[in-house]
Amino acid sequence: NAGVTQTPKFRVLKTGQSMTLLCAQDMNHEYMYWYRQDPGMGLRLIHYSVGEGTTAKGEVPDGYNVSRLKKQNFLLGLESAAPSQTSVYFCASSFGTADGYTFGSGTRLTVV
Amino acid sequence: AQSVSQHNHHVILSEAASLELGCNYSYGGTVNLFWYVQYPGQHLQLLLKYFSGDPLVKGIKGFEAEFIKSKFSFNLRKPSVQWSDTAEYFCAGRGSARQLTFGSGTQLTVLP
Fold this sequence. Notes:
The complex is a heterodimer.
Chain A: E1 4-7, E2 10-13, E3 19-25, E4 31-38, E5 42-49, E6 56-57, E7 64-67, E8 73-78, E9 87-94, E10 102-103, E11 107-111
Parallel strand pairs in A: 2-11
Antiparallel strand pairs in A: 1-3, 3-8, 4-5, 4-9, 5-6, 7-8, 9-10, 9-11
Chain B: E1 4-5, E2 10-14, E3 19-21, E4 24-25, E5 32-38, E6 45-50, E7 56-58, E8 64-68, E9 73-78, E10 87-94, E11 101-102, E12 106-111
């Protein structure tokens, strides 16, 4: 089925470890986004991309890096994980700026 | 900066009761507004959206929302809720920026 696929679904990291979250979409969407969801805070935008090879900072970018080498993939990296990065991470994509988003199923990350 | 506010953090209703969840946005000009629903353990799904035209928007599963420009509001309504409507509901908006800004969410619990 067409949509947004996130891997992995769950991960536990130790403080200081690094990891990459992968987001893949097969809808030929130009725009892709990474959000984190924390209780009582809704979804906050980490980084986004308006096309292949482009990235931009969102509301809470510190401690994260992203890359969009291919149009269908948007990677979120944590270089040195911290307990404050324990969260559920959602990737989303959209065709244009006037469209709603299609969300992935999320990655639950725990940093101990 | 654009922002979206949801003042009801948790709403508890009995089946067949009517629902209204509040959403207010802070920016003027052209605005796109959305309501998303997140069922337990699942990703966000689009309920409805407003871009222009008729301020009363109908979405899936019997939900509707009314855009009131003078009140900067986009409240979600449903005349009769069901147990299966138990979920978290997010309002989101887009003004001049390309990306959506989400509210903090409202947890709806429907008692059978």
